[in-house]
Write a structure and sequence with these properties.
Blueprint lengths: L4 E2 L6 E2 L3 E3 L10 H13 L4 E3 L4 H4 L1 H9 L4 H5 L2 E6 L1 E2 L12 E2 L3 H15 L6 E4 L8 H13 L6 E4 L3 H8 L7 E4 L6 H4 L2 H8 L4 E3 L6 H4 L3 H17 L3 H10 L6 E4 L4 H9 L7 H12 L5
Parallel strand pairs: 3-4, 3-12, 4-5, 5-8, 8-9, 9-10, 10-11, 11-12
Antiparallel strand pairs: 1-2, 6-7
Helix pairs in contact: 1-3, 3-5, 5-6, 11-12, 11-14, 12-13
Organism: Piscinibacter aquaticus
Protein name: Oxidoreductase
InterPro entries: AKR_Detox_Biosynth, NAD(P)_OxRdtase_dom_sf, NADP_OxRdtase_dom
Length: 300
């Protein structure tokens, strides 16, 4: 069993690898098959699961909840549930949405959290994130919604996703935030230069990382940069006797901000690759070799 780790001083304790479920609606599995995947994840020590209200066209939380209803109470109690809200998609499940937009009003945040709780069949979310920065976000109103959900015992901790440093700082000035869930991998290195990782390290808040394998491009993409990174990952993996995927996760785990990658795959082997990275510490030269392959040039 992997020990749980804190995202922030007063933040939630999650497994160091988080299982992402955004594609679950496309797996075509029965509730029993979904439960078995949850059980296998837990057997690996991955007890935290990353959701969002919009995943699967607003269907994944209910699919997960249906599977979870088959589980024993002891299994349910071992899980940590993360969800996100704030995006309104155009989908048959929400016919009132005329155009994709964001909604960070208190009414929507509270309603979304309550809908997630009902769909998942749980009494409390361990962590709720604002999914995208909303140009119309009123930080005081968001903080009020967070406080109401916390005081009602419906959500334990809060954070953001995809926030730039200034927007994160704004919301954090109104309410304690536990993480910023961001995209980060060798092909998307903006957080190194835009202040995101520096800010989180300064605040001693650990980022969560979505798309750590660039949606699979790090392993099977056919672009020029993708092929360079694949070759570098293969070289490093050969030296360490592990898979290229494990090296890709270890590249993230080497960062001093101590991120928690979100590994999203129906293949339990993919989660094993991610968990194996917890035992691999890349040298600075290994790390730079992968960065250089992605950038197509030496470090500055």
């Amino acid at each position: 069993m992997l020990p749980l780790t804190s995202l922030a001083a007063d933040g939630p304790r999650l497994s160091p690898i988080v299982a992402g479920v955004w594609r679950m609606a496309y797996w075509g599995w029965s509730a029993q098959e979904r439960l078995r995947w949850i059980e296998q994840s837990v057997e690996l020590g991955v007890t935290s699961f990353d959701h969002a209200d919009i995943y699967g066209g607003y269907s994944v939380e209910a699919l997960f909840g249906e599977a979870l209803a088959l589980a024993s109470p002891s299994l349910r109690q071992r899980l940590q549930i993360v969800s996100k809200c704030g995006i309104k998609l155009v989908t048959p499940a929400r016919p009132e949405h005329r155009i994709k937009h964001y909604d960070t009003t208190a009414a929507h945040i509270i309603a979304s959290a309550e809908t997630s709780l009902r769909a998942l069949g749980v009494e409390r979310l361990d962590l709720l994130l604002v999914h995208r920065p909303d140009p119309l976000m009123d930080a005081d109103e968001v903080a009020g919604a967070f406080a109401a959900l916390r005081d009602a015992g419906k959500v334990a901790h809060f954070g953001a996703s995809n926030f730039a440093p200034a927007t994160f700082e704004l919301l954090a000035s109104r309410f304690p935030l536990s993480t910023n869930q961001i995209e980060l991998h060798p092909l998307h290195r903006a957080p190194f230069s835009d202040g995101t990782l520096d800010q989180l390290q300064r605040l001693r808040i650990r980022p969560m990382i979505w798309s750590p394998l660039a949606g699979g491009a790090l392993l099977s993409g056919d672009g020029e940069a993708e092929r360079r990174v694949q070759a570098a990952l293969a070289r490093v993996a050969g030296r360490h006797g592990c898979t290229a995927a494990t090296v890709a996760f270890a590249w993230l785990l080497r960062l001093p901000s101590r991120p928690l990658p979100v590994a999203g795959s129906r293949r339990i082997e993919a989660l094993r690759d991610a968990v194996a990275a917890l035992q691999l510490t890349l040298s600075a030269q290994d790390w730079a070799e992968i960065w250089q392959a992605a950038a197509g040039r030496e470090l500055p």
